[in-house]
Amino acid sequence: MSARLGVLLMTYGSPADDLHDLPDYLAAVRGGRAASSELVDEFRRRYALIGGSPLIPITRAQATAVENRLRADGVDASATVGMRFSSPSVLDGIRELRDLGCQSITAIVMSPQYSELLMSGYRRAIESALGELGPNPPRVELAPAWHTEPGFVEAVAERVRDGLDALPPETPVLLTAHSLPRRVAEAEPGYLDQLRSTAEAVARAVGLAHGRWHFCWQSAGHEPGEWMKPDFSDLLPELRAAGHESVLVAPIQFLADHLEILYDVDIGAREQATAEGMAFARIESLNESPTFIRALASIATRSPAPVGS
After folding, report:
1. Domain residue spans in the chain?
2. Which of 71, 160, 216, 269 is most exposed by smallest CB count within 10 Å?
3. pTM
């Protein structure tokens, strides 16, 4: 009988529900640099407006769905989560899977586009965890970029089609990714290519004509310096001037509801669209989309090189 497969879904995490650890969480996200009291207060306001981040519960639900999908496909598997900047940690997740009898684990960063510069922290967290687990730790393989995985592309395309069904004909679609400081983006041209490839693949799958969709950025940070353009706020006045009265925002990088969706898009982008006199909508997040879960299960059963090899 084959050994049990472990699946570890990894993402940023979020502060505790009562936000008491928000300063520590922001410092971790910022590479150890403490956030100003003004920045902490602003994020406290944002989390309060959305009722706290549901990211960790949703990621747990995604892991359960992946486990169920694999078992339905005849694969003996267990799946759990590991957060980079909050509990449960990557170490917690790997230890849990080891204790469940998993000697082989596929770790999936819950961002389809992979940048070694931006996301190598996940690899380091795995390496650190394996060092702490003592002799004979499980074999952990980090899934490479899966930005054009057919099931993932189709899952986003399904959400876009559903969103457009409720909007006027020819409503433009903004396919968004998390903004980056320009200096970081210029050091990662391959990552930018992955983002654009995803946008193009989704547009093809939906059947969007050239000019009907636009790739743009969202959620620019609070660091000084130039951030990537165009932001969706830059495109809204142009679309309104071209005669469009509605817009659909479709994130192609975020896989679950969390702050960058529930505040940056649902509150911030909606306010900007309303100010331009446009009706606003965004696609439903992938969350536990069956098509998306099948894609994750497919990724989990591949065999990239183990971490540390």
Report:
1. 4-146+289-300, 150-282
2. 71
3. 0.95
